[in-house]
Amino acid sequence: MTSRTGREQLHDSISNYEAGDLPVARISDCICDCGSEVFSLGFDDDRGVAVRLCFACDSEVALLDSQEVLDHADSDIDLDAAECTCGGIDFTVAVGFAISGNDVRWVSVGLRCEDCAIAGVYTDWAIGYSPSMHLLERI
Ligand SMILES: [Zn+2]
Ligand SMILES: [Zn+2]
Prior knowledge:
By secondary structure, the chain is of the alpha+beta class. The chain contains two helices and eight strands, in the order H-E-E-E-E-H-E-E-E-E. It starts with a helix and ends in a 13-residue tail after the last strand.
C-alpha cells in the first residue's frame, strides 16, 4: 500500500511536469479491479500508448485512448517497459489531464517507483479530438 505522501509526491510530479505546457486540471490514480495499486507499464512515447499490467493479478488495461491506437496500427507495436533509474519496474501509476472547455487536451502518465520512491512522467500525448471527456474514466 502506497502512503498518502507517496501519492502526493506522484501527483506533484505530474502537476509540475505540465505536459504540453498546459496546467494539469485533474489527476486520477490507477487502481486495478483486484484492488492492487502496483503495476508495470508498457508504453510507446511516439504513438501515445500506455498499458498497465497489474502486479497482483496480471490483468492488463490500455490507458486512455491507447486501445484505439493499438487497434488501428498498421503493424504490431512493440511497447517499451518502463524502468526506473534504479532498475525497478513496479510502480504506482496516476494519469494527469489538461482540460480546456469541455475537452481533454493533453494527458500524462506518471509513475512512482515502489523500490526507490522516485516519481516522474514517463509518457504524455496530445488529445486532438472531441468529445474526449470519456478519457477521464479510461484509467
Ligand atoms: Zn489486479
Ligand atoms: Zn526506482
